UniProtKB/TrEMBL annotation:
A single GO molecular function term of this UniProt record: ATP binding
Protein name: NitT/TauT family transport system ATP-binding protein
InterPro entries assigned to the protein according to its UniProt record, in alphabetical order: AAA+_ATPase, ABC_transporter-like_ATP-bd, ABC_transporter-like_CS, ABC_transporter_ATP-bind, P-loop_NTPase
Top-level taxon: Bacteria
Keywords for this protein: ATP-binding, Nucleotide-binding, Transport
ABC transporter domain span: 17-246
Family annotation (Pfam families): ABC_tran
């Protein structure tokens, strides 16, 4: 990702995300999965959601992606409802979910095919995306020939294809080994720093959340609710060396303490 290293002022292309008194229950009579969630995420902000298993992190992302409904409250991406703005949302999951019969290039091109877009502009954009995620040496490979990290790079390029204003990342690096996870996390952070897409990252790793985010939202479970909203006032661009600073450790500790007493599977 050489093009990302020399980075300039952030280009704000993100949308504001607003959740107001959002309430979600999957089964009638059960405790709500999300209760009275109020959250405002500024355009271009990178916010992490952390919290114990089952506190509703993925549910919140699915609501924002317009994939599931909710009973009460208001959700907006810019001035659009989630269902209206689906094309403006890029989604990345723990597993890359690539089409096995399509090459790297064809997988990155998929969103354009689905949207019925073709032509030289599309071909150029696909080339750019592949270069951006550092896969120019692997364009014709099939998914089964790729490492886990390479598969996630394809997934990232695909999520960025239609230039979404919002990125939703559901534990995108958690299936990778620790070295690759840190490396790809930092690369994504640098990409975010110059693209300015409003981003929500779900992670079980507090250090990953601190390294990448502007703010960390800690959620408690049963019912899923916000227990802390922690600002990460570390300088950008973020560098691996920040982990050793006392400020990094203080922020991580603040998040940990907010989750004490919550039934945690936090790293
Ligand atoms: N489709 C569904 N139908 C019924 N219950 C569901 C459904 N999806 C999730 N749940 C329940 O809602 C709760 C929150 O699930 P969710 O996946 O949002 O949690 P999470 O915080 O992302 O958990 P994890 O960290 O383990 O991924 C859990 O109790 C889960 O069992």
């Amino acid at each position: 990702m050489a093009s990302i290293a020399e980075v300039r002022e952030p280009v704000l292309t993100g949308e504001r995300i607003t959740l107001h008194r959002v309430h979600k229950t999957y089964s009638a009579g059960e405790q709500p999965v999300l209760k009275d969630i109020n959250l405002e995420i500024e355009p271009g902000e990178l916010v992490s959601l952390v919290g114990p298993s089952g506190c509703g992190k993925s549910t919140m992302l699915k609501i924002l992606a317009g994939l599931i409904d909710f009973e009460a409250g208001e959700v907006a991406i810019g001035d659009q409802q989630p269902q209206e703005g689906r094309r403006d949302v890029g989604f990345m999951l723990q597993q890359a979910v690539l089409m096995p019969w399509r090459s790297v290039r064809e997988n990155v091109k998929l969103p354009f095919d689905i949207a019925g877009l073709k032509g030289q502009d599309v071909e150029d954009r696909v080339d750019q995306l592949i270069e951006l995620v550092g896969l120019d040496h692997a364009v014709e490979k099939s998914p089964w020939e790729l490492s886990g990290g390479m598969q996630q790079r394809v997934s990232l390029a695909r999520a960025l294809a239609l230039d979404p204003k919002v990125m939703l990342l559901d534990e995108p690096f958690s299936a990778l080994d620790e070295f690759k996870r840190e490396h790809l996390g930092l690369e994504f952070t640098h990409m975010h720093e110059y693209m300015g897409k409003t981003t929500i990252l779900v992670t079980h790793s507090i250090p990953e959340a601190v390294m990448m985010s502007d703010r960390i939202i800690a959620l408690g479970a049963h019912p899923g609710r916000v227990v802390a909203d922690v600002k990460v006032d570390l300088p950008r661009p973020r560098t691996a060396g920040l982990v050793g600073t006392s400020r990094f450790q203080e922020i991580a500790q603040e998040v940990r303490e907010a989750l004490v007493g919550e039934d945690g599977s936090i790293a």
